[in-house]
């Protein structure tokens, strides 16, 4: 896990992606469209899709993914219980390394939840 907060991590990652938006606009627009289409409510609601995305972020050990998806899950009203249950599935699918990242994901969710309560 990064030694800084997930709030800082997601802000810095967004800032570091700015040159890609400028120099690779077609790729970035296509990725944004893919994200929007994949996460749009359908047979599964948006929160369920974000829980799946977070589980994959845990299993693939992507710090930045943890931050962005934790923030989205807080915005979508995911409960701590739903989040912990999803982490159990992520650990099942990813083994020991996912267990370590589950702890990081929980820290990200708690950080964004605390910030949302303070708003």
Automatic annotation (TrEMBL):
Pfam families: CMD. Residues 25-107 form the Carboxymuconolactone decarboxylase-like domain. InterPro entries: AhpD-like, AhpD_core, CMD-like. This is Carboxymuconolactone decarboxylase family protein. The lineage of its organism: Bacteria, Pseudomonadati, Pseudomonadota, Gammaproteobacteria, Lysobacterales.
